[in-house]
Amino acid sequence: MSFASTQFLAFFGVLFLLYYTLPRRFQWKLLLVGSLFFYSFAGWWCLIYIGVTTVTTWFTARRMAALAREQDAWLKEHRAELSKEERKTRKAQDKRVRFRWLLGCLLLNFGILAVVKYTNFVLSNISGVLALFGGGTLPIFSLVLPMGISFYTFQAMGYLIDVYWGKCPAEGSLGKFALFVTFFPQLIQGPISRFGDLSPTLYEEHPWNGRQIAMGGERILWGLAKKLIVADRLAIPLRTLVADPEQYSGVYVLAVIFLYAVQLYADFTGGIDITIGAAQMLGVQVTENFIRPFFSKNVAEYWRRWHITMGTWFRDYLFYPMSVSKPILKLHQRCRNRFGRFGKHVSVHTCSLILWFVTGIWHGASWNFIVWGMLNGIVIIISQELEPLYDKFHARFPRLRGSRGWDLVQILRTFWLMGAIRVLDVYRDVPLTFRQLGTVVTSLRPQALWDGSFLELGIGAGDWLVAAVGAGAMLVCSLLGRREPVRQRLTREHPQLAWAGCTALVLLIVIFGVYGIGFDAAQFIYNQF
Amino acid sequence: MKKTILTAALWCCIGGAALYFLNALFMPKYMSEVPEGALIAEYYQEETGHDVIFIGDCEVYENFSPDLLWREYGITSYIRGSAQQLIWQSYYLMEETLKYETPKVMVFNVLSMKYGQPQSEAYNRLNLDGMKLSRQKLAAVRASMTEEESFLSYLFPLLRFHDRWGELTGEDVKYLFHRDMVSDSGYLMNVQVRPAENVPPGKPLANYDFAPVCWDYLDRMADLCQEYGVQLVLIKAPSLYPYWYDQWEEQIKDYAARRGLPYLNFLKLTEELGIDFNTDTYDSGLHLNLYGAEKLSRGFGTWLTQNCPVEDRRGQEPYEAVWQEKSAVYAARKERLEAEWNELNEGGSS
To answer: In Å, what is the CA distance from A35 to each residue of A169, A188, A198, A243?
Structure first.
């Protein structure tokens, strides 16, 4: 059930009415039933996968919490009898027991994810290698990926690790925990919420709050407008451009970089707007996932502003633990001794590359995603290593730093650099992507920009204009909303204008939205991850 | 709280009014192009009832002239026909018609028996968008939708036609809230002449049996007419193409005999009717032109007066006044179309 469908609007409408008419103590239960109903549209068999993850995570977290309690109680009871060293040994033993539970659950759930998502990728690569030596091909299985498995697995595992670390308590109610994992607005494309952030508003009773509901509704409309007017409209020429790379090379590749950046942003942030708006209408606060990423001045900053919850997940649950793991610390020591200043960075860069490898493969089981992830890591590492050079440059030209012009140069550089890396996701073929990027240098043919060729990509001049105005509106709202979101300010200062804006948005979506017969309704891009 | 609710209600009303206006603006008007799309809605402007109602596809709205039936026999009739009207659409139109009037005779053209499943969204829109919102319309939509269609778009056609924003013309504004009549009591007049030459023979079919769903709707039509005391007449219009197979003919004949319904296959009566496919068709035998339609209507009018309880209503008010006016429009349209056709021919030959 896509967010941008009448089916979803009907489902949400009914759920919303029931939510505020039933006694408040039933609210979270209704959300759970609604979420399971919503998820069942992806196929009843998906419920088995999400059910296994929910039950095993809930049980393991409970078991780890119970063990911790028992172990604490035992230590308290025997405090007087044990020496400090014995207490330490005992604690370490206890931790190992809890770690075994954690590891078992992590292996099971990441194992499920790995099997359904990566089996065929691994098999086809092994077949490729075997073919080099004249071997046969391995069979490919018809495995269907359960909707949102990468998102809910990561969310559940994040919770489990937090319980292990003692950062959050184990949830006692299986139903409430199931709601945390299956909460429908964020189930299919995130954000990847933390239990500590989401659970307080998820489980509490919510009285009718007109202002919150209006704000949520406005955000849904804004998300739908981004998705249906801009993203799905740009998807049409993009499909044409990608379908025939031979014909559409040179300047068209620059167009692909630019258009895909806008499309993906409108699509993904549109979906997140609907997620956050729907949750807000139900009184639930979901973490923001974007902070104007296209205004980033470097790649590292971009990743602090784009898909934030994924980035912080990898940072907190992979990068940090890996950085302080024994093998990495050993590597750090060895490299520092052997290579001096540069050696100090080797361990961090190793962790970065592993992190970006995992980030890449999380997005999809194919080489283009792996290369995409590694390129991100390499660019960040190079930026870090060139830091002293930048400092020298700015020492020579001190007026540049902080100037608007230089900021703009950095923003544009980051936008195009990220866009160039991102096209790996568009062509889905590593050699082809690099060939296409090469044609920007070897055969640019810029005349296509003004000879009318762009009007033959599946949309006419009117559609280009609508897309441009839509993208422009997104840009203006981003610029104006640096301190406070535009709609929030509008609602407070000019409420009538906010109502007029919402009415206009409805009309604009109905008229200029890309939907219905004649259009291939594009799913949200991040659903596939 | 009260103020917020009032403001919300006000803006909802404004939004609703805007959507209503946009719906009217974006709906295709079917005035200068594809006039078939305007046929179904024109029925609701009828001022008087009818003794004969024709139901079916292009083989009725191109081949019968209600005006001739009036002028020569005093029969009041109307054609509720539309392009590639499927049998379930015909059934629901029949049911809907019976809400407005109870004619003496319902004439159903059986060509649509060949279609056992929904065919095309484009034809569905031509047939269904013009129907007033009713239980029958909803049932017809449900029965007709192809996989790609959405039910909601029939309730709010703006959801289907929103993408016309780039192709709106002055016509969309001109006919925003009113339309000109494109038909004469449902008859879509054409005076052009294109002889029927090289009519392709019917290709052998793997299966000549009509689909069960078609028989079911034909049964429902017969039952419905029986319930209302209306004489159902089955016909096959004299169109040379699409090909009408002997195997189909036998099935319809058997059915008509079993249900005690009259069945007239005009394809077998062309000589008797005086139809000449060199002069009486405008598209090489698919449909009759005005001259052919008048010949066919003359023959059918004779049959109706002899076999059905239809009255000669000439001289009866309000029929006389209404049909006088209709005849004047018919004559004027005929004159205009003939002038245009002659001009086109002269232009072509010079």
So the answer is: 23, 11, 15, 37
Grouping H, G, I as helix, E, B as strand and the rest as coil, residue B31 is coil
Q: How far apart are CA A375 and CA A359, in angstroms?
A: 11
Q: Collect all residues from A whose CB is shorter than 8 A from any CB in B.
A: 6, 210, 214, 460, 462-463, 495-496, 499-500, 502-503, 506-507, 510-519
**Chain A residues with CB inside 8 Å of B149's CB?**
517
Q: Which residues, including other chains, have CB under 8 Å from residue B215's CB and lie 6 or more apart? A: B255
Q: What single DSSP character describes residue A207?
A: -
Q: What is the pLDDT of residues B315-330, one digit of tens each?
A: 998 999 999 999 999 9
Say if residue A313 is in the same domain as residue A336: yes
Secondary element (H or E) of residue B81:
strand B77-81
CA–CA distances in Å: residue A362 to residues A117, A348, A356: 9, 21, 9
- Residue A510 has its nearest CB partner, among B7, B14, B162, at B162
3-class DSSP string for B156-190: CCHHHHHHHHHCCCHHHHHCCCCCCCCCECCECCC
pLDDT tens-digit readout, A367-423: 999 999 999 999 999 998 888 898 898 888 888 888 889 999 999 999 999 999 999
Domain formed by B36-349, architecture: 3-Layer(aba) Sandwich (3.40)
Angle at A190 between CA A188 and CA A196, to 5 degrees: 130
The domains of chain B are located at 36-349
- Please state, in angstroms and rounded to a whole number, the distance separating the CA atoms of residues A141 and A120: 6
- Comparing CA positions, the residue from A304, A248, A301 lying closest to residue A443 is A248
**Residue B12, helix vs strand vs coil:** helix
Q: How many CB atoms lie within 10 A of CB A241?
A: 24
| Share in percent of chain B as helix, strand, coil (round to 5) | 55, 10, 35
Contacts 24+ apart (CB under 8 A), B161-169: B161/B26, B161/B27, B161/B28, B162/A510, B162/A511, B162/A512, B162/A513, B162/A516, B162/B26, B163/A514, B163/A516, B163/A518, B163/A519, B164/B26, B164/B28, B165/A462, B165/A511, B165/A512, B165/B26, B166/A460, B166/A462, B166/A463, B168/B25, B168/B26
Q: How far is CA A204 from CA A16, A24, A179, A196, A405, in A?
A: 16, 9, 12, 13, 48
Query: Mean pLDDT across the stretch A150-162?
Result: 94
ipTM > 0.85 for the complex: no
Task: For residue B15, give the nearest of A463, A506, A517 by CB distance.
Answer: A506
Question: CB distance A517–B148 less than 8 Å?
Answer: yes
Please state, as a whole number, how many other Cβ atoms lie within 10 Å of the Cβ of residue A5: 13
The per-residue pLDDT for range A312-335, each reduced to its tens digit, is 999 999 999 998 888 888 888 888
**Can you say how many angstroms the Cα of residue A53 is from the centroid of all Cα atoms in its chain?**
20
Are the beta carbons of B163 and A503 separated by less than 8 Å? no
In this structure, the answer to whether residues A129 and A184 fall within a common structural domain is yes
CB B69 within 8 A of CB B52: yes
Co-location of A219 and A138 in the same domain: no
Residue A466 belongs to what H/E stretch? helix A461-480
pLDDT computed for residue A159 by the predictor: 96
Kindly state whether residues A31 and A141 are assigned to the same domain.
Answer: yes
In a shared domain, residues A67 and A199? yes
Kindly tell me if the per-residue pLDDT of A521 is higher than 50: no
When CB atoms are compared, the residue of A6, A507, A516 closest to B15 is: A507
